[in-house]
Amino acid sequence: MLLVAAAGCGRYSANHLALAEDGFKAGNYRVAIVEYEKAVRFSPNDPRAIRQLGLAHFRLGQLDPALAFLEKAQELTPDDPEAQLTLADAYVAQRRFDAAKKVLDAVLSKHPGNPDALARLGSTYLVQREPEKAAEAYREMIQRSPNNPQGHYLLGLSLRAQKKIPEATSEFETAVRLGPALIEPIAQLVEMDLIAQKPDAALARVQRQISVVGDSARLVDLLGVVYAARGQNELAEKAFLKSAALQPTLADPLARLAQLYSSKGDDNAARAKAAEAIKLEPNNTAALMVLGLASQRRADPATARKYYEQALSVDSTSVVAANNLALLLAENGGSPVRALELAEVARAAAPDDPHVMDTYGWVLYRGGNYEKAISILRSSAAKLGNAPTVQYHFGMAAAKTGDTTTAKRALALAINSSVAFPEKDAAKKALAALR
Q: Which domains does the chain have, with CATH numbers?
């Protein structure tokens, strides 16, 4: 009887395992998880089921169960590179970098030169802001596979993080030559052109690449980015619409259309396109930022905060999300500690951006640190002299430090500006109090 029962359990487990495998192959990870879990009830240490449960949970973004199953899979099958690499990805997602590097080192000890392990090791160092160590991993990738464009692209990223722009440019251009259809290296080159205020070079670069590989949706989207940077909004809109038509499942051109409409003050059109992008890609940071800004403009700070927080959960280094959320918290009674943390994140990433400086200074002001605030706000006001909100912030800080002459001048500049700003009544009240 025991033998009959065991055989029945084995068939039961095998049936569910087969259904789970079918679901996994089809990308139906929720269905696969249900079937794998039924299988492991009767085979608790089945290495295949445990492994696949870890992979399925990870692909659904469910990190805690993914880690539990992947760690057990590592115990059951110590030499399974795919499962180990996914385990490393899960550790990185939880910012457990030392654990990730330990797993990657184990893979490389058994599989020297594994390109996926080297790529992940380098990326882990990049996230930890150790680009020199990242470059070592990427150089080993190139040494082992010199014609793999990915290695050159990643090395370019690490060199750019070290501000070695000519060397980074060379690596990105090599990646483009070896992999003409890759969008990432050409996007880096275009971004560097635009930062260097070479919009003509950026445009020529994208147009040349389109002539080589044709109208790919991502390249046309990048063309729209260049047009937008050049102030050619009608051409940018046409490019984004064309990109969306070429690949209707791509969220980026819709998100960029949302940004374009938002910059023109058309919040209804911006929200509509951002919502379309979110349907395709729920964590599209550009679309989330548009929805956050639109909510802020509608005086709905709670909804704006939700979108900014979601954007930061996807990209914890997003300067715009950190900056906007810091200001939102400072203005609406949020945690001053959290506001300061976010303002410092934004300032660390963009120390010379006067808008980021203004937010940082205003958060310091709201926290009662007037002496430090005035030094920061003086710099931002000097760089953004025609921005009334910035002058208002500077004037308020000057008043708190006893410099009434500077305070009066800054507040008067704000009030007399032809640009509308929400603090105008508060500025008038503050100036009247100083007279």
A: 337-435 (1.25.40.10)
